[in-house]
Amino acid sequence: MSIKEIGKISITILMDNSTDLLLKNSAHALRSPLIMNEKLNLPPPTAEHGFSALINIVKDDSNSGNKNLTENIDGNTNYTYLFDTGVTEDGVIHNADLLGIDFSNINGILLSHGHFDHSAGLVNILKRISSKRLSSIDVFLHPDAFLRRWLVLPDGRKARMPSLDERQLISLGGSIHKSDKATILPNKENPFLLMTGQIPRRTSFEKGFPYQYAENSDNNNSEDDDNNGNERSLNLVPDPLVRDDQAIVVNLRNKGLIALTGCGHAGIINTLNYAKDLTGVDKIYAIIGGFHLPADGGIYEEAMDPTIKEIQNADPEYVIPCHCTGWKATNRIIDLMPDKFIQSAVGTTFTF
């Protein structure tokens, strides 16, 4: 599946687990400033345990100038997508407003998977968009993103995770595109961005999310009780693979692939390998997003060393861990790949 090379990409972090107004700008990172117009930039962008990024793709950067991130360049040579929507209803909107970002002009919304820390802001973002434009907004996601899921811990504690309601999204102007296959955007005539679809699991050390269970199909609806008002009995089935987990991939001209992940439940190495398979491009230029390697004393910590070793073997120019990567894994990356590491923070725009 071939995707065309792009001239430039900007990725603005609208939600992540950390915020920092003291970070300095660098060649590829424009930071949220401490001072604007002789005033302190307060309140600062908010950090939460979630993820969201605005992606701006420029087909040819020769005349791109300093256009607004959501303003289409003449000839429609750029495309803008919102990737994930954070963990609270209004956190991403709050940060977008601080950064002067208008969602009404974006080309679509892409969900890495259905977990609440990536989808909770979707409803209010759709409301914001529908208040400013008459046309619907495309929302791309895997069918399993709508599953009703539970977190079941080894000690028996369990809790339902918030889930998406497809009918509600449609009522708010969302045009829903569900697919477990790779998706080319904006269209086949202009194949500049790849949504991987369901990612094959091949490595032995990337084990998904074993604490996740899903309600079976009889329970998997938007109602908690039957038509008589009786609470439904639960039939939970193991759902460890998070099949809806997918990534965004672009091919930067003369550089290689840039992969953007949400949580990376499929495994960042599985994701990179599949990106290569889909595109036929072997060079990984940059990796950005959540790698899901928390220091949990269990399977994720066991996966930390082999995962980072394989990232080293992939030899990207830049590694930007975000969200659920975890401090221990992030510091391991800093120690082993100091020249490749760039720190993420809410409000940062990475440009390549």
Describe the structure.
Helix content is 19%, strand content 26%. 44% of the residues are buried. The protein has a single domain, classed as 4-Layer Sandwich (Metallo-beta-lactamase, Chain A), CATH 3.60.15. The chain is an alpha/beta fold and 352 residues long. Helix 6 runs parallel beside helix 7 (327-336). It has an eight-stranded mixed beta sheet. Strand 4 (35-36) and strand 5 (39-40) form a beta hairpin.
Condensed summary:
The chain is of the alpha/beta class and about 350 residues long. The chain contains 7 helices and 21 strands. Helices cover about 20% and strands about 25% of the residues.
Short descriptors:
352 residues; Metallo-beta-lactamase, Chain A; seven-stranded mixed sheet; 7 helices; globular
Please state the CA-atom Rg, rounded to the nearest Å: 20 Å
Query: What is the distance, rounded to the nearest whole angstrom, between the alpha carbons of the first and last residues?
Result: 23 Å
Strand content: 25-35%
Report the CATH C-level class. Answer: Alpha Beta
Can you say what the CATH homologous superfamily is? Ribonuclease Z/Hydroxyacylglutathione hydrolase-like
For the biggest sheet, the summary is:
8 strands, mixed
Net shape: globular
Kindly state the percentage of residues in helix.
10-25%
Multimerization state: single chain
Number of separate domains:
1
CATH topology: Metallo-beta-lactamase, Chain A
| Physical arrangement of strands within the biggest beta sheet | 3-21-2-6-7-8-9-12
Q: Report the CATH architecture.
A: 4-Layer Sandwich
